[in-house]
């Protein structure tokens, strides 16, 4: 729960086409007065009935004055006038949606430091309701998802009307209002302790001075908080770094039409082996539908985006492309690590003679998925720091060895995904030939393991009690394509399987104690039973080899276990024990066995 300041604010109608609304104001209600400097529109719903209302009586000291004309949702007019301490009012006329669609207003802070002289249009939005408020939603595209969507959806039409669609950047990373909120620069939405700052009161005072405040109050309601600090969060638009999915990739100064990051990634998916096969559909759908990749974050730690930028007049930025500057950065990182970017004097150190130019050092960091996605470049290709890798993997741009990525199924959205995009963009192919994914380990009742539930199974304890081979065998026998279960009862079955395998092998090794290589019997000279058993073994070998090739380890365990229990222990050994125990060492049957 959180207690918010609430305000009912008037937006004076300015559109000359609606003389009947001359002197009227659209009324909005908000629990975040600090977002009003970022207001650029008002949203309404064509499904709601609206009306033009006139205040006929109000106390002398009231903000709402007798004669005020206010536009409100019919269902909410009574509650608004009650909040505004209006003692009498009347409905002048109904306002259809097509009338509202063409209405334009002035910003309630117009005249303050010359920063709010723009037109505020009315835009239809599906998110508007008449449950609470006024039936109109103050729309600040820099501070809300619905606000942003409505604003950008109408961008083309607004520009045709001569209305700028630029979204202001009114709150910085410290929660302070910026110069793009004229009259309030430096006011804090939240202070350093995460508590309410002075921005709300400053905005409310400015509204009172402008005569645009209808009412104010406080509301205790549920509000999003940071799970870590337990402090309220605010929503704000921020400049970010993106990697485009659908722009033609430029290589050696040339761009091939249709050669986009999305196209490369989708092709790479199609030529990669996915185990289990369902993994291909999963990541393919993600790549088909994903937007551009936002790779920047604003945290106090992480790998920096080590570039310099220069702001342009249109709100975009130019990135410095200078090989000498980049070389200085690379050499410093090799010697000192990424902290070199944040040391005092870093700007002058890296820019060198260009330090007197207006280049700004970027202090944003990379998304951690970008970090992990780049591992192929320094694990598969860095022969200087990984000199022995050539024996086990191939360089990504050639060779015959196979590279497999193996992780949990959630990595289709994570490591597999970022690795695919980075390698496709820079190498033209995926960094892997095979991707194997497994499910998650649950308790034997199918529940997620939790210390609070006391249902965790610790590998160290299993190893201490039963040995590492039990754990290995459980892994091999598991159908990893789905979530796997482990617990005392399941491990009992694994221990039993292990004991049968081990005892079978131990018995075979015991019978071979006196065997000499000179005693080998040619297969053609063996009795029929031995030839039958070898035939069965060859059949199992085919099954097991195929299973290994398909990473189907549970079939390996099941096939070998069944062969040793049924074909060997219960059949072949049972028949041949008399021969092995009683026949003389020179016996052909004994040697063949």
Quick summary:
Helix content is 34%, strand content 19%. Helix 12 (415-427) links the parallel strand 21 and strand 22 (434-438).
CATH architect. name of the domain at 2-221: Alpha-Beta Complex
> Would you tell me the overall average pLDDT?
90
Give the helix level as a range of percent: 25-40%
Topology, number of strands: 24
Q: Which structural class do you get from the secondary structure elements?
A: alpha+beta
Order of strands, widest sheet: 6-4-5-2-1-10
Main sheet attributes: strand count, strand direction, barrel closure: 6 strands, mixed
Residue runs with pLDDT of under 50 for 5 or more positions:
391-397
Written overview of the protein:
The structure is a single chain. With 593 residues, the chain is an alpha+beta fold. A 6-stranded mixed β-sheet has the order 6-4-5-2-1-10, with helices on both faces. A 4-stranded mixed β-sheet has the order 7-8-3-9, covered by helices on one side. Strands 14-22-21 form a 3-stranded parallel β-sheet. Strand 12 and strand 13 (254-260) form a beta hairpin. Helix 6 packs antiparallel against helix 7 and helix 14 crosses helix 15 (488-511). The longest helix has 30 residues, at 553-582. The model is unreliable at 391-397 (pLDDT under 50).
